[in-house]
């Protein structure tokens, strides 16, 4: 495998891509959270261009009416991480790409759910801050555990009467047996939900009401009371990470100083290996805490380079296993995970690239049909529009137009690259609908 997985002409490095799903018990707020994420990521880079609140609201309303992106199989968003201090209105960090893949159905253990889970590298699981862990949430949780999807939890609806972040946090540990740690603790609750304590960075983040964007916030030093909460959570977090991460564990044993960066990296490794679940609290509906959830997605969920490589087999010899490494320099190999009939564009085949690069106009091979077909267009779904792209790189997600003989689950590869990605092993239904 080549040392550098990035080709020189890709727009930005692979390590800044996240492929995530959002999973939730029905009514916990998956749609609202997805919508808010799309709002912040779809519009945030236009801050300064949109001058009045109406534009934003209209955009949200249009989205809601049309429901285009929210119901799409995969949406590509971009996010700039925050600054460290003060009133934050602009975003100057490095650009991150977050592909949000729709994980259909709440309880239906179908092949479709499995297919979309296979192309995720991580998930945000949404819990209701009032209802906590409900039987249906346990189902969603078990499903993600079964496929070893790295997760972070967002405890939503912290603005609602009766919301109790700590109670939900305890339930996550007790009922789900999760090795959970708090990373963003709400400041206040119900009508008084004012911000979040950022445990890792030991800062207070206050939501600043901003009718235009709703996305302004202020980062401040912790008050004494908040510092006590943060210290306790930090200690718990450190102990949890040290006990599962050898590298950090060794530093701890040797009493070497552990920097925040060390801790962040180790927490990321632990989340990626499903050893630790970071938990954040906020309210999607009130736009409170969503931006920091986006930061947490980038900080603690894996990039396509962090996950184990995909495994395929030779279609003529099933015993011959082929490792498919995430790199632009490999031969093109992708998985078609969703077909979508679009009324303007026609049949879209959503795919995830595991290795190599595919370009518009390329002829690609389907080992199931043993046929080659030409890609007419490559499309990315971005905010509310289809954007034509020239190429799609390793680790990324987009849609092909022009292929006729594709089924979901098919491997689509370069001509001459005889590989079939492991077929999904469909689970037995766990729920009986009696
Ligand atoms: P889904 O079924 O998981 O997709 O849930 P929805 O996003 O449709 O939300 C269910 C209901 O909860 C809707 O009426 C939302 O407006 C409401 N809701 C979602 N998030 C929040 C929140 O953070 N606070 C409050 N108060 N209501 C919320």
UniProtKB/TrEMBL annotation:
<keyword id="KW-0963">Cytoplasm</keyword>
<feature type="binding site">
    <location>
        <begin position="24"/>
        <end position="31"/>
    </location>
    <ligand>
        <name>GTP</name>
    </ligand>
</feature>
<comment type="function">
    <text>Catalyzes the GTP-dependent ribosomal translocation step during translation elongation. During this step, the ribosome changes from the pre-translocational (PRE) to the post-translocational (POST) state as the newly formed A-site-bound peptidyl-tRNA and P-site-bound deacylated tRNA move to the P and E sites, respectively. Catalyzes the coordinated movement of the two tRNA molecules, the mRNA and conformational changes in the ribosome.</text>
</comment>
<dbReference type="GO" id="GO:0003746">
    <property type="term" value="F:translation elongation factor activity"/>
</dbReference>
<keyword id="KW-0648">Protein biosynthesis</keyword>
<keyword id="KW-0547">Nucleotide-binding</keyword>
<keyword id="KW-0342">GTP-binding</keyword>
<keyword id="KW-0251">Elongation factor</keyword>
<feature type="binding site">
    <location>
        <begin position="156"/>
        <end position="159"/>
    </location>
    <ligand>
        <name>GTP</name>
    </ligand>
</feature>
<feature type="domain" description="Tr-type G">
    <location>
        <begin position="15"/>
        <end position="305"/>
    </location>
</feature>
<feature type="binding site">
    <location>
        <begin position="102"/>
        <end position="106"/>
    </location>
    <ligand>
        <name>GTP</name>
    </ligand>
</feature>
<comment type="similarity">
    <text>Belongs to the TRAFAC class translation factor GTPase superfamily. Classic translation factor GTPase family. EF-G/EF-2 subfamily.</text>
</comment>
<protein>
    <recommendedName>
        <fullName>Elongation factor G</fullName>
    </recommendedName>
</protein>
């Amino acid at each position: 495998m080549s040392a550098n997985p990035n080709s020189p002409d890709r727009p930005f490095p692979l390590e800044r891509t996240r492929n995530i799903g959002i999973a939730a018990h029905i009514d916990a707020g998956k749609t609202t959270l997805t919508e808010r994420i799309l709002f912040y990521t779809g519009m945030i880079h236009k801050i300064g261009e949109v001058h009045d609140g109406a534009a934003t609201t209209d955009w949200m309303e249009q989205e809601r009416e049309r429901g285009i992106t929210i119901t799409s199989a995969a949406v590509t968003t971009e996010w700039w991480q925050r600054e460290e201090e003060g009133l934050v209105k602009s975003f100057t960090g490095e650009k991150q790409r977050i592909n949000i893949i729709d994980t259909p159905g709440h309880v239906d253990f179908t092949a479709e759910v499995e297919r979309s889970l296979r192309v995720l590298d991580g998930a945000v699981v949404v819990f209701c801050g009032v209802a906590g862990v409900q039987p249906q949430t346990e189902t969603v949780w078990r499903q993600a555990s079964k496929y070893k999807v790295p997760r972070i939890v967002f405890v939503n609806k912290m603005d609602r009467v009766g919301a109790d972040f700590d109670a939900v946090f305890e339930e996550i540990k007790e009922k789900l047996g999760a090795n959970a740690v708090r990373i963003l603790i709400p400041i206040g609750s119900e009508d008084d939900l004012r911000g979040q304590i950022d445990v890792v960075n030991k800062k207070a983040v206050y939501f600043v009401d901003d009718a235009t964007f709703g996305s302004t916030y202020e980062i401040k030093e912790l008050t004494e009371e908040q510092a006590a909460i943060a210290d306790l959570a930090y200690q718990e977090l450190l102990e949890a990470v040290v006990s599962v991460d050898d590298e950090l564990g060794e530093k701890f044993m040797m009493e070497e100083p552990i920097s925040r960066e060390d801790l962040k990296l180790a927490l990321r490794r632990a989340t990626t290996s499903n050893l630790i679940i970071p938990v954040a609290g906020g309210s999607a509906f009130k736009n409170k805490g969503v931006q920091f959830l986006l930061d947490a997605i980038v900080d603690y969920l894996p990039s396509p380079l962090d996950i184990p490589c995909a495994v395929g087999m030779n279609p003529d010899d099933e015993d011959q296993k082929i490792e498919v490494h995430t790199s632009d320099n490999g031969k093109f190999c992708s998985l078609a995970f969703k077909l979508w009939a679009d009324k303007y564009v026609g049949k879209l085949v959503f795919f995830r690239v595991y290795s190599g690069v595919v370009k518009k106009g390329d002829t690609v091979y389907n080992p199931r049909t043993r046929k080659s077909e030409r890609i007419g267009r490559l499309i990315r779904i971005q905010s509310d529009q289809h954007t034509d792209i020239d190429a799609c790189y390793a680790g990324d997600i987009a849609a092909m137009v022009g292929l006729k003989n594709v089924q979901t689950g098919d491997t689509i590869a370069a001509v001459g690259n005889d590989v079939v990605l492991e077929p999904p092993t469909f689970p037995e239904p766990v729920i009986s609908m009696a």
